[in-house]
């Protein structure tokens, strides 16, 4: 279904960001010099298929029942899913005609707390060492950075694996490797960055160290 824009008003909708399994508010408004009569029909389509049609006068909704019309043109989407992410065409009909607008929905899910593990039983000066930092159950994909105790970024020595599970959520696993390890670099901080490169969490290694320590007095 597609309507041409024949209205004497403008329909505006803000981009929406929702959390998986929660309710998302989609803010829309009508801009007009003349107050139109109540909306007689709301309809929403993705770029591939219809979502719903709502006829307020008879209180009839057909299509995806997770969508609800609230406060005139604004919408709610209940039980957000990854498949809801994308672009939408929203159409309404009033006494001033039919108008349409396109908006987007982005989906997020919070990752679990970062967990740091060590393959070896202990970290020994001069020997090989591998540290792992893992996070799971999040969306969209992000990245992991490593820092040592002097706040030096060690990420160039790490490899990152992003795995999308069957439910669409991501598991991140970062491996930080040292061919010749120095205990003075510890402890290490593992930092999770989302897809906008914003920090969302971190964890500090609490691992057993073994080796020779040198103190320098200046």
From TrEMBL:
It comes from the Eukaryota. One of its GO terms (cellular component) is cell-cell contact zone. Residues 112-208 form the Ig-like domain. SUPFAM superfamilies: Immunoglobulin (SSF48726). Keywords: Disulfide bond. One of its GO terms (molecular function) is protein heterodimerization activity. The keyword RNA-binding does not apply. InterPro entries: CD80_C2-set, Ig-like_dom, Ig-like_dom_sf, Ig-like_fold, JAM-C. Signal peptide: none annotated. One of its GO terms (biological process) is cell migration. This is Ig-like domain-containing protein. It comes from Ameiurus melas.
């Amino acid at each position: 279904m597609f309507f041409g824009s024949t209205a004497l008003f403008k329909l505006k909708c803000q981009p929406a960001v929702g959390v998986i399994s929660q309710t998302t508010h989609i803010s829309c408004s009508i801009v007009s010099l003349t107050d139109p009569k109540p909306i007689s029909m709301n309809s929403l389509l993705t770029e591939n298929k219809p979502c719903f049609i709502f006829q307020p006068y008879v209180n009839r909704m057909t299509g995806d029942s997770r969508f609800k019309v609230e406060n005139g043109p604004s919408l709610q989407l209940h039980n957000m899913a990854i498949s809801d992410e994308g672009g939408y065409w929203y159409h309404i009909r009033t006494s001033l005609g039919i108008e349409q607008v396109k908006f987007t929905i982005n989906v997020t899910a919070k990752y679990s707390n970062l967990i740091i593990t060590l393959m070896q039983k202990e970290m020994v000066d001069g020997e090989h060492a591998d540290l792992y930092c893992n996070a799971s159950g999040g969306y969209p994909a992000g990245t992991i950075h490593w820092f040592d105790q002097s706040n030096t970024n060690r990420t160039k020595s790490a490899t990152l694996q992003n795995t999308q599970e069957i439910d669409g959520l991501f598991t991140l696993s970062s491996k930080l490797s040292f061919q010749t390890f120095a205990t003075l670099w510890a402890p290490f901080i593992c930092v999770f960055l989302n897809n906008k490169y914003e920090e969302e969490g971190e964890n500090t290694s609490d691992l057993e160290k073994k080796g020779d320590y040198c103190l320098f007095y200046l």
